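Our consortium's second objective concerns turning raw sequence data into structural hypotheses that experimental partners can test. To show how far this objective has progressed, the report includes one record in full. It was chosen at random from the queue rather than selected for favorable results. The single chain below, 1836 residues long, was entered without modification.
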Amino acid sequence: MPQEKSEQIIINGASEHNLKNVSLNIPRDTLTVFTGVSGSGKSSLAFDTIFKEGQRRFVESLSAYARQFLGQTDKPKVEHIEGLSPTISVDQKTVNRNPRSTVGTITEIYDHYRLLFARLGKPHCPECGTRISSQTPEQITDYAYVDALNEPCLILAPMVQERKGEYRKELEEWATEGYVRARIDGEVRRLDEKIQLARYEKHTIELVLDRLTITAQEKSRFTEGVEKALLLGNGLAILNYAKKDSEKDHENKLEQSQQKDHLFSQLMACPNCQIALPEMEPRLFSFNAPQGACSTCNGIGHTSTFTEEKLCNPELSISEGAIKCFTEKGNLLYTKVDQRHVSSLMKNFEINDKTLWKDLSVQQRQLILYGNTQMKLGVSNVFRFPAQFLKKLEKHQWAGFIPILQFVFRFVKGPLEKFQHTSICPDCEGKRLNKMALAVSLHGHNIYSLANESIEASVSFFESIQLSETEKKIGRDIFREIRDRLNFLNDVGVGYLTLERSAATLSGGEGQRIRLASQLGAGLQGVLYVLDEPSIGLHQSDNKKLIHTLKKLRDRGNTVLVVEHDEETIESSDHLVDIGPVAGQEGGYITAQGTLKNLIESHESITGRFLSGAEQIRIPEKRRLSTGNKITIHGANFNNLNNITCEIPLGILVAVAGVSGSGKSSLIDGILKKALICYLNPTSKDKPGPHKKISGYENVDRVIKIDQAPIGRTPRSNPATYTKVLDPIRDLFSLMPEAKARGYKKGRFSFNVKGGRCEDCQGAGLKTIEMQFLSNVQIPCDTCRGRRFNTETLQIFYKNHTIHDVLEMTVKEAENFFSALPKIHTVLQTLLDVGLGYVKLGQPSTTLSGGEAQRVKLAAELRKKATGNTFYILDEPTTGLHFKDIRLLLLCLNRLIDQGNTVLVIEHNLDVLKVADYLIELGPGGGKYGGELVYAGTPEDLAEKETLTGKFLKTVLGKGEEQNSFNEIKNEKVEDIFNSLEVSNEPTNHKRDIIIKGASKNNLRNIDVIIPNNKMTVITGVSGSGKTSLAFDTIFAEGQARYLESLSTYARRFLGRMDKAPVDSIDGLAPAIAINQKATGRNPRSTVATTTEIYDYLRLLFARIGKAHCPETGKALIGYSPTRAATYCTEHFAGQRLELLAPLFLPGTQKILLLDHPKHLPNVIESLKQDGFVRIYVNGKAIRLEEWEEYSPKLTLSKNTSVDLGIDRLMINLEEKKRLAEAIENAFQRGHGLLKICLADNAGEVKFLSETPANVESDLSLAFFQQEELTPRMFSFNSHIGACPTCDGLGGFSNLNNTLCQDCCGERLKAEYRAVKINERNISQFCQFTIPEAKREIESWSLTENERIVAEQALEEILTRLNFLADVGLEYLTLDQKASTLSGGEAQRIRLASQIGSGLVGVMYILDEPTIGLHPRDTDRLLHTLKQLRNRGNSVILVEHDLDTIRQADHLIDIGPGAGHYGGNISACGRPDEISEKNQTLTAKYLSGEKKIPIPEKCRPMNQGYLISVSGASANNLKNLDVNFPLGTFTVITGVSGSGKSSLVVDVLQRVLEKELNGKMTKPGMHKKISGIEHIESVMVINQEAIGRTPRSNPATYCKVLEPIRNLFASMPEAKQRGFAKRRFSFNAKEGRCPSCDGQGFNLIEMHFLSDVWVKCDQCRGKRYNRETLAITYKGHTIADVLDMEISKAAEVFEAQPRIKRILKTLEEVGLGYMKLGQAGNTLSGGEAQRLKLSAELARRSRGTTLYILDEPTTGLHIDDVGRLLKVLHRLVDEGHSVLVIEHNLEVIKTADWLIDLGPEGGERGGEIVYEGTPFNCTKFNGSFTGKFLKSSFLT
């Protein structure tokens, strides 16, 4: 029985950001809330640790290709996490402001709408509204026969329609082709008469193809005529007939006989307007794609155009600047058009530039703005050569300012928008789509009108929609997805929204709930959901809905972690974790955890004190009164605001409240803020929303919005720089005496500029090591040791502290330190007042929380000098703030108000609302139900009115109670909660079983089944019964699809399409990971290390901590930064005089320097002189640059001449260290990273230092320079960057008997990368180790502290994978062993090691026959691993036939009773022991022993003279084997996984026989000799590969039985009479197949992100053939009937046809009688395909004695199918053939005549013969693992 699964998430040693090595346990399947003061570490624990690790582990189960698109899944800083599930996060994001983003696109419902309209929409002509459809010739014929039976008809092909011309040539050609008549301009004329057409008049010509009466006898002729007309008329045909009308007056013969044209189209085009509809694809309905978007507005719904009103000031003249879009310099914005053009324009067109714009005539204004000519505008005349315009103006041609601006707008949008007027698009009327897309309708709606319905109305529409059967089949999955998503949106309270609503107009609360609906609607269980303050932006009434949603999630069997400060959410939790006790570096501890009671009782928990009422935010004793000034907004009607007028009193704290979506942000952000900004700054491009007017502007002189956006985007920004306190601090340091003496200015004390900062880390203090797929590692800079500044700067002190020491101080420490300096102290005191005393002055801004950033901004405002008329706006400022932080925030806001300013907050938090002086409530609901002013007044007034907000305010205000009433309420509430906790203390198990209803994939018969959760379930049944359809195509496909929907849309594009399963519902589904059957990779590049990804981590390690060496000399490469080079000189040459040179040319090296040849030296002399250099050295001789002209004629400059530039000559001592560093930096710059040091005291001694790693010897020919920084790609033998160019990274040459590459000696990499080593070994040498050797090697590494930090993550990953490989018994493999040499069992276990080493919990693992290729001994190991998985808390589902595995399952599902269409039902379900006792299914009978495969009475004897002998077989791990394979027997090769079975049989024997007997070009494995081949005449390899990749391949075609059947049909009298050949009866040939479905019988409806749907062809009704072909029958059966017959039935029908009967009987004998002759080949199971191949071979005429080779033929076979297979194989032996089988299945082994057992182990410890003989004797041989397991089979 399984152990109790882990009920907790166990976290050990979490130290991300400020977390202090935190360890805690979180109960699974609960609603757990993380709370604590802002900045204490909540998000660091919840998101940066738990979420990241959970998602990282699950994503690792996906393909390597997919993972590269999923973003970097960093490994967090945590020692260990156990019990983790796949995670989904719903974190805080700002609402998407992209104008193309809508509610429909965010929720992906619009994507489903597009697919729905593309597949089920009915297209109409956008001009005339006619329904457009495509018709086949048969449909046109049927229509005509219903419409005009027995009426005369003309069949016409339209050739010319309303076009001018004589058409003489065309008429002659038609006559030559045999056509007799044509209808020209309505008159039928013979083509052999003279026809003259007027050349300049329009004509219509139709060819007359046939004249006949529409009768039953003429139907075939009529159809052929229509086909011809459609062909000639490009898809159009005209039938001219009189419409039959039984109700017409029969006496009026003349009227009845009038014939009319009836136009038919084979194309999707309107027959009247000739408008062709584009392909009906989802992109046609996308306003973001050119195929669907309105071309006028580009799919935005509105147009922006430059207008006179926006561009021109009517009160100014041209000379005064009437046209606003000119710069101060007189240029038209962003162009070279300037005042010269304006003057020329005025002069040439005689316009007075002094006349006011409004006084110019309309014609003059039009001319100036729009021009008088269509001029080609381009980069040349607009941006570069404006004189072109001047030349045109001289010719009185002008382009116009607006056309020029429109051209510029293509390149520069933002700044020009203020000159544009935005209006609804005139073409699409704001609908965004083009006419074609809007002309497609679905049940009375086009896609726009449907998307414009509210979500509530849409729910009703989709619930009441009446669908046809075809619509139900095609739209089943689409309708299900749409309904689910709409219902979830409705459930979370946004039913009033429309899908067309722009995302930019959503409130924060609406956006949050939409994201919740998108992420949480999947219905998964076993998932860990992590949410970041979901209550943000929610009104208290909405909060209850949210909490209900979270509990619903928990009750499904998920763990819900919420970072939250909301009191109601905290009280509703099952488990609480309080982090603190304070923020920043002093926080990061667990102060309390458990129940609410535990929290309140904890003395350390600040949260507990607030919840208990011990601490609180006090209600003011007295509300402030307004100063009398106010701002009034009149007639606001932006978004949903309903023409409201609202007064805002000034000088007090005003709060705006209301439910989510009520219009708060629209009123304040959308109208008031923008209007104030425009008033105070007329040039602002902000445009307030629609309103009548705003009064009271004059009472405000500044408007400031304080939000929680970061105070800086880079780590270089910090509180000291933002508050400007660093400026006076730097001034202070520059005034120190030592600084003055050295000439240091304040800039010296900045880590952002050169001079004072450490140049090695550029002032960062850290170096970031990019670790690609691991989280980046930061290590202290080796030079400055993390102090950011260089040594000289850090020698300046103030009170014994350096500038670095100051930046490391907290605000509190700094405030005390600088108490005597008012300028600095004032700013620090302000930071202290807002509660940021714990923050370091130099703390990177990127590490501050939103609340901390907000308070830094408030501090910056508080330090400014008050004007008293500032209007502060804060939108939900309590976001992310703890109760304590809110109290601090309110103190800051009150200080601002006390200075005479106004503070307006948009807020839902009751603690803020209760202290406001004035409240404005909007509502009463959200969306169209809101937008009204509900009430305005004091909080007490609001509470009295009992508005929606007022009701909640009552709980904190009380009716006439004193201040302590709040305490009483709190205490009562806490007591109530304690009581409820005592009642509900019993643990509840939320885990649900997996309940599947209506599964109908492939042959599944709409089955319902329950799979127990957290159990090991085996799904079994006969081959082809539907096991894989249930396990993989239904459960796995749906489980993974739902989880992957939580990933980004961009990422999902690369994950392969996860088809939705055809199933009514699946409840209790968990994220799914599949480990299915895959053939061992034959790619020669793939190895054990690459397959397990160990090699990827090794590449990363060698790139980051590997030591590069010279590939020639083996010496280490060393690189010097300028600082390190200076230190080197100081240490080695102290007291000596050095000459520092920059090499310009070094003979004999490959180093690229300034000169590529010394002869170019004269070209650079002048520039070197200008740069201040004095001398150069040619071959070591100094030449002054000013004397160059004198010396140059005497010089011989050849490629052997060295040229160096003199940089400096100096004595090495401490005083010259700065000069030395600057000289070295200059030398590196001039010498391209190379420095030459000449020792003046030791003549001739030279030393080279290189900035990049290098080995520079005195013998320069041996010098080696590393060209670029090492990257992981350099160690990849699959990349051209790293691969050895000689062998292309293969290590050898397969076409030369695997000869090793002489250049890389099999190590596959270039020499320079093989020279990179760790512990004296390169990456290729490391990969030669076995698993235990690799582990020992890693343990022996001696790393520095920095190297250890860098390597830590990668080493952990490598060791984890090595341990798991050892656990599954693969310790004998080497890491460089090629994947192509692995056995099936080894490959299977490697995949298991790769996939399930993650330690996830709550996952559904689905495995496809994992025992395939495993020896019974290895199967036990595998089952142990799978049980470990189950015991962790995962569901393990196996598709399996192995009886031992079935017996060890917790639950068994037996699918059957038969295969194909006889299967697909649940035959039995329950515990295996119960099923074996109570059921009579095939599986139950074998489990109980009632039925078994018999052992042959005696074995066929081995004939020593009749065998094949293999000598010296040494392929892969074979140990020079000599083996005899007896012929005329049933021989089985067995042995543990990796023992060498496939190497011996497939690589050696099979390939030799195929080469000798079949002439196949194969390369056999290593051996000495094979004899006895002459005993056999052919070799036949039978495997389980599919018999065809397309639905067109089937049993009838594969077994060649269709050919005689087609011959038979072609010989029928009716077929002969019609001239039908056998080709006519092939659905692959045009003549006989249905043209509508191309002979497939079904039409594929591509459903993009949903499962594709096959719909029966409307024309042939699934029969594949056209009507004429189906008129031919044999014994009353058409060819379509025959293909739909079961093989057994067909054998009866063709009893009298010997050739056909023989093939069909053979198919019956191998157990395929149930199969239909026409069943698509790609739907057959592996076992069915194998038996089909066997039957095809058996049915062939004998080709002499054959050796049949089968590699694990029982794969995918039920034990009953194994019995059938054995009968067939033994029959082959009885007929004189030989059968050789590689197999582990004991049922097969026990029936063998001869057994060869290889081993004793796998890999290098295998490859020997353990046993040869009969199976029975093997059981007596103790050295054989096979014998041990085989014993039970021979027990009676």
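The partners drew two points from this record. Confidence is low (pLDDT under 50) at residues 1-5, 246-257, 959-989. The longest strand covers residues 152-164. Both points have been shared with the crystallography group to help prioritize constructs.
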